[in-house]
Amino acid sequence: MAAAVEIVSFGYLHDEPPAAHLTIDLREHFRDPHVSPELRHMTAHDVPVRTAVLSTPGVSGLVLATAAAVDAFAFGPSYGIVRIAVGCVGGRHRAPVFALALAELLGDAGHEAMVRHRDLDKDVVQR
Which phi-psi region, left, alpha or beta, contains residue 58 (left: φ > 0; alpha: ψ -120 to 50)? Predict the structure, then answer.
C-alpha cells in the first residue's frame, strides 16, 4: 500500500526535533562532512557533500531500513501521513542528503514522498 510521507531534515543544534512517527539521529554513527574544511560551507545541494554522505558505510543500509519502516507504517490499520524526521548536528549535510535519498527510494516504490529541510539554509554551526 502506498503512503503519503513527509520527511523533514533538521539540525539538533538549531531547535528541538520535529514531531514524527520515526526520528533518525545521524549524529554519532556516521562521519560528518562538516569536519572537512572543503565541505564545511557546502550543503546537500552540492555533489561532493552528497557523495561523501552516501558513500559512508551504513548510510545506504539505513535508508533501506527506513524505507522498510515506512512500508510497515503504510500497512497499519490507521491512515494518514507518515512523518519521518532525520537529524544531524547542523542540518546542512547528513540529514538532508539522507532525506533526499529516502524520498527518491520511496517515490520509486510508489509512495508520495515530500521533503522539507528545516535548517539547510541556516548558517554553518561553529563548533
Answer: left
**Residues 6+ away with beta carbon under 8 Å from 64:** 105
**pLDDT tens digits for range 40-66:** 999 999 999 999 999 999 999 999 999
Amino acid letter at 32?
D
Please state the separation of Cα 93 from the chain's center in Å.
9
Q: Is 22 exposed, middle or buried (0-12, 13-18, 19+ CB in 10 A)?
A: middle
pLDDT of residue 80: 87
Helix/strand number for the chain, H first, E second: 4, 4
Q: What pTM value is reported for the model? A: 0.95
Which tens digits make up the pLDDT trace of 88-107? 999 999 999 999 999 999 99
Which three-class secondary structure state does DSSP give residue 65? Answer: helix
β-sheet with 22-25: strand ranges across: 22-25, 82-88, 4-11, 112-117
